[in-house]
Design goal:
Length: 94
């Protein structure tokens, strides 16, 4: 008896986006603190960096790699460690 396992990639993509939302939450807090410090010191450059970081975090769930992924590996590979930190999938690949 064999079982065919079918993976619903749309659901996996939504789960992946939820992982991104969880990972980015503390990064938003850091960016907000950075922005507040920039206001205190009237540092326009630091303020702009904080604004750009927050926009990158917002856009992380709209990564075109996620939408175009056709395999689980491609979805996992779309994780931006530079922006979001350590991948949540490392425990599954060890």
């Amino acid at each position: 008896m064999s079982f065919d396992i079918k993976i619903n990639l749309d659901k996996v993509k939504n789960i992946h986006r939820n992982f991104i939302r969880t990972a980015r939450q503390p990064k938003f807090v850091e960016a907000d603190l950075q922005f507040m410090k920039a206001i205190e010191h009237d540092d326009v450059e630091l303020k702009q960096k904080a604004v750009e970081l927050k926009q990158q975090l917002r856009d992380a769930t709209k990564n075109p790699q996620i939408e175009s992924a056709t395999t689980l590996e491609e979805i996992k590979d779309s994780w931006d460690t530079g922006l979001l930190g350590e991948t949540p999938y490392r425990i599954y690949s060890e």
